[in-house]
Design a protein that fits this description.
Strand order of the largest sheet: 1-4-5-3-2
Order of helices and strands: EHEEEHEHH
Number of helices: 4
Radius of gyration: 28 Å
Structural class: alpha/beta
Largest sheet: 5 strands, mixed
CATH topology of one domain: Ribosomal Protein S5, domain 2
Helix content: 25-40%
Length: 176
Amino acid sequence: MERITGRPDETDLQAQEAPSRKGTRLPRPDEEAGRSSHPGESAGARSETLVGLTNGRGPNPPRLVMLSRPQDFATLSERGATRSHPLLTMRFLRTDLDATRFGLSTARRLGGAVIRNRVRRRLREALRVMAPSFQPGWDVLIIARPALVEADHDALVEALHRLLTRIGVLGGRTAT
């Protein structure tokens, strides 16, 4: 390979190694921030409160049972009764199961995938808060309407509470 010299836009630069920084320490892969590196040793005075999304829900938040089989959705569409609200529509059906199961439907008319996923997360979180007071033996399909995208949390919770109470999932009333 022949080297071309004498061009004004080329310059030979020496490769210099960056000077090492004293005191630089990289954590070990198994080390977590704020934790003791020795097992069995106390990590110091750590707060016992939970941080982040789990705050306020306790160590074992209620788990929702979700509908996942296409046959369950088809049964709800064929035989389920319907109740509506400006933010959402619910299809529901009484079952003989020990749990109340939920399905979420977010159509593309709500927006892109990010918006639809956000709507589903908001619905699941609102349902989780209400989960301890669910009556067993219901299948509920929640269909989000476009107005739900812009609705605040309080409006979402109020709409869910109103429809679930009217159906009989919350409290002892049964739907007519």
